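Problem 3 from the worked examples.
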Amino acid sequence: MAKWYVSINRASEDRRMIEPSVPVPSTVHEPVWTVHGLLDAYRRRAVSPVEVIDQQLALIERTEPTINAFVSVHVDEARAAARASAERWAAGRAVGDLDGVPVSVKDIVAMAGHPTSEGSTAGSPTSATEDAPPVARLREAGAIFLGKTTTSEFGWKGMTDTPRFGITRNPWNTDHTPGGSSGGAGASMAAGVGAVAHGNDGGGSVRLPSSYCGLVGLKPTFGRVPQAPVESSFITLVSNGPLARSVEDAALLLNVFSRPDVRDWYAVPHDRRDWRVGLNDGLGGVGSGRLRVAYTDVLGGATTRPEVAAVCRAAVAAIESAGHPVTSVGVLFDPLRPHLEDYWKAGFAARLRVIPSDQWSDLDPGFRQLAQEGLAVDAAGVQAGHAARVRLAETMRRFHQSYDVLLTPTMPTVAPTVDTVYHSPEFDRWADAVPFTVPFNYTGQPAISIPVGTVDTPGGQLPVGLQIVATHHRDDLVLRVARFILDLLRS
């Protein structure tokens, strides 16, 4: 049976926590902070950063043996940063936009003073000497780092389990995966840890765990958020973004993440706008018109599970009941696998080539197999993948001449169990994991996942996400529509 979110976990008044716009599992009994709610509490002296970080570290200690969301927890650093933040708030000298806000960072980007393992057994990574751009921006904004979160090996798959760090589990039901590759980020947030989490998304790796864990997950326009280094074969697919508990928090984090960094020559010119402005504008378009909204759950020939489709269609029906027409569209483009499978494998092969062959046996077997197959892909095969991306981008350019936003399920399924073999007949990457997300990594468009309901399973409820996609550089539209839909479903 499909269910909407009509109410969510509420904190008692004495906690003075602003209610998040996404639910949390019923097993979570601690205060669950939004960024905006926490900053408001700091301003009113209702709570101090020291109290919050102590609570967060205690929560990590209790939940980690089960969910395994962290590669490392930076206890001493977090407590020292909390004391410094508390002094600033007490003196009325808070810094940045996130002073005292607890965050986590996916262990696939560099954090000064800590190694970056990328979930792999390969090599012996040394501590980074400088922060990657998203981490630098969080630090400048006053955020407090709780630690680094788990990822699949090199971020290769939409589940999070590695030979090195083991299995990360979903707090909604620990027999199920939180998704990947930002699985630790999604699991920690669903467990109530952190006010926001950093992730990055090269095929759905922010949106996928957000869907499986009942969160808001934003993949900005490619180049909106600077990143470094930029030599990866997948660099033009990846966008860094937040996993959050409200659209407002996602918008604030986009303000922070998108600030310029000279290390990224792919970055688009910095837009100085506050991405929170206009969130309440609803589905109004230019003048007296309305946004032109389309929906499909068969994108690229995808097959959505009936129970997931029912939840997403119910959200679409709610939009229409509020007076905003939504046009059903079809597949829009042919299946991507025949055109992009070799392109995908070739990127893995590029990574495999720099790992000593005597270490290959220690790698995730699924990654190793695909990477070794990718060694046979020649330059013509890679170029064919680039050509397929160009054709896909042109298809979506034409689509957006008729429609402002596209709605799809984020995922065609709810979270599979942790013993599921990824990219197998049981759970195929192209059919079951990324048919709705990866197209917009190839085109670079902004997309967001929001939680719109749950599905009953034998082990309890599991969340369902709805994806909102807009044309390039219209991150404001995906945020605005996301806010409208979540407010509508909560009313």
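Problem 4, a separate protein:
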Amino acid sequence: MVALRAGRLSAPLAVLVLAGCTVGPNYKLPKTAVINNPAAQASFISDGKATQITNPPDSWWKLYNAPILNALIQKAFSANTNLRIAQANLESVEALLAEAKAGREASVSSDAATSYVQQSAESVLQHVQPPRREIYHTGITVSYDADLFGAIRRGIEAANDDSEAALAARDLVLVNVAAETTRAYDQICDDGNELATLRHTVALQSQALTFARLLHANGRATSFDVAGEKAQLETLESQIPLLKAKQINAAYRLSTLIGEPPEKYDHVWLTCHKPLVLLAPIPVGDGKSLLKRRPDVREAERRLAAATARVGEETAKLYPDVKFEGSVGSIGAAANIFSPLTNFFGFGPSVSWNLNQSVVRARIAQAKAQTRARLAAFDGTVLTALQEAQSAINSYDFELDRMTSLTDAQSLAAQVASNMTELYHGGKVSALTALSAEQKLAQADQAVAHAQADVSKSQIAVFYALGGGWDTSGQSHVKKMQISQESPSYSP
């Protein structure tokens, strides 16, 4: 490192400052980036029966029209621990941005000291004891970095991009919290629905066992028949504790998501026995709207922008760093404080230059490699977002097809059970025949209940993949902050 000072170089250096530039590449996403591919912005592949092209709302969970769920998500947004961590991380990065911006300001320092001293005579080759006296030092120093080649400007640019990336990371946590809260409450309701259908099936099987015992007592059935009906009843009853455990575990998970201890869950949640139902097709938008909405895509793009800015920050170190410094103060014997003999001042430019260019160029190469890695990560995030959304929509379509088939079977079983009941009351079929039809209907009800749970899970997976849950209007659910609607932003 070479440092140069000059008292009469102010004018030439001022010319250099005026001619200064910001070195390094200006951020611009390559045209070959995956996000620019027309296929990445196209409509999703779907049969259109359960989806529509309009964009989903930010608060997608309100499409279920479930007040309890709405309240739970709002509570999770205010108390979830992961969200609190993400918010704190965002505030930390914003503080780093403020620190970087402070680099454009003049650095001002002051100092003051006093002491009672006696110098060493022998240190100056004398043999007479020097006098003892009180001395002091006080002064103010001001330094301003001209940022001739934009190192500070690039640093601020990188810090600003990091701040926007942290905001996107916080929004991604919002997406996760909304989805996980909905998923937990949905499981409680789905398990409640399956428990209701299972208990009905158990009740019918208990009737079948009663009939078998009655027939056995009258010599019209064997003990094996009774044992078979009892085994079937116990098999069905054994499923009830498992469903109860799943439901309570979902309540534990939901309680944790809203920032409460697991055992503090609200027992009212367990009274839900109807699955969450959408009253309209899911609005999925297209690839273009998805990539604007997904916070992880925005975060990856901002990380790429920050890496590009750091190339310029390192490149600026190839050139001299010019600072203007001034100082004023007083130093000397306390008896002469602030006198012409002790006062001092100084002003002038200073130039520092790292002549070890090999080290600087190696760091530039590292920064460029990091930029390439960030571009690859951005492309990968875009591809993953598209794949997750398309896969979720595809699975949802097939789950609905399965649901349609099971619902048709349920309708047929209900018709048969109704006919058998009429025939039984007319004395044309036995009670066992009517009961058998009721059992088949109960089995169909169980299959539909299980399919409804799978459909609900698929719906939530679609909403999660679409990246909804944070407020794209610029008003965050946690903190008011302006968010660009042009996503991603491809210019510095």
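Solution to problem 4. The chain has nine helices and seven strands. Residues 357-425 form the longest helix (69 residues).
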